[in-house]
Structure prediction request, 510 residues.
Amino acid sequence: MIDKTGTVYLIGAGPGDPGLLTIKAKEHIETADVVVYDYLASPFLLNYARKDAQIIYVGKKGGDHTLSQNKINLLLVEKARQGLNVARLKGGDPFVFGRGGEEAQMLLSHKVPYEVVPGVTSAIAAPAYAGIPVTHRDHTSFVSFITGHEDPTKKDSSMQWDVYAKSNATLVFLMGVKNLENIVKNLIKNGKSSDTPVALVRWGTTARQKTVTGTLETIVERVRQARLKSPAIIVIGHVVSLRDELSWFDKKPLFGKRIVITRARAQASGLVSKLSKLGAHCIEIPTIHIAPPEDTAPLKESIKNIKNYDWLIFTSVNGVKFFFDTLFDMGLDVRVLGHLKFACIGPVTKERLKDYGIISDILPETYRAESVIDAFSTLEIKDKKVLLPRAKRARTILPEKLTKMGARLDEVTAYETRINDKGKEELISLLEKDEIDVITFTSSSTVSNFMSHLESKDAGKLLKNVITASIGPITSDTARSFDIEPDIEAKEYTIQGLVDSLLIYYESSK
Ligand code: SAH
Prediction:
């Protein structure tokens, strides 16, 4: 009989920065039937999972065990026995204080096949992102990873405080924030110099990273003042002093800024990755989503008659995408477009068109409908048949002007932007708790939908401490119509332009 038991992959999900996931881990997440994850594994990684995969959260935040270890074990066995492959994501490395060893033993005893995918442990990565190398030839010849969870006052403790205190090792404590005072006391009591440097790094490798430094003598008070809580790594040893020189991550220009992205999820990744690279913590709360039009007949009809057109104009990446989706759905390909001339608004739209093998004939100097009109004014457009596939309820200036110039224009709806109110509660709660630094608006509809999310709340009050950043003058005008004066307006009306303007704003406000 063929063994139908699935395999359980015990996967190190890395310390938080999604870029620190291994390629092998990613492959297993992408193919798994079931993904089981907990508190320390970045939820971002779930985006890699198959759409039909079962996603199961098993918690474990401090004492809050959503599922007990025993129940987690049973779950893994049960799923594997159903013939399903399971990706069991664990923060950092599965075998570094992650109970991965116990899970592997348990799987073995149930004859469930398993594999281990080591991960980047927070014990090394969090200090590294704080500019602290855990070893350095001038400072220490070895490093210890120690649990900070064990109560150091308990009688049968396995903690060897005298050994830790006397060695010149870098001591890295995990799960130790609550016990910090005891850890410090025991080390000093056993002879460690009270001026030994110490750092705590909370949420290391993420945009929420926070570091507090001091010495064995001062650290408890400093951590109290900073109200630093778990999860954090405690690093003790002379390597900590290298942070003054080597810190790099917290020096990023947008480090720690909490920025809300309101654009549709499908379009957000470019903005999110640009901002994240600059150190920002991006909070995606899409206020819109992009969908095919309710009635696709007009677009299909115009594609059927495409040979009658002279020009095809795209005003957005979405227009390009939905136009070609429909074209391919109709069993056609780009060869039916060979006779056309093309115009695009904006370099990103132009690039997207190029993905389909077409180079735009016109690219306006700036990225607004008005500039396209200028670009057309130098060409002979009179009596030419122009197709304009774009969003429902888009601005009317472009078709009006082109018609005035004598073009015979057909405007068809290629897609619709619909309101998305899934993140409404999260948005209001973050605003009320003062946990947002910047809100980005990348189109007029992101503004108006954002405002409708706030409902009857006092927008002025909620946005008092928030910087608003608009992608261009039209979006800004929409914001003004709601009594919001954008603090930042992009000089170039693109995502890159918006990011650049944010950078300039923060540079100049330093
Ligand atoms: N297997 C994990 C450790 C699990 S134990 C690993 O290899 O990283 C949980 C402890 O890990 C937390 O209490 C905290 O001390 C540490 N930890 C995990 N992720 C962290 C992060 N991003 N920043 C700081 N500490 C982290």
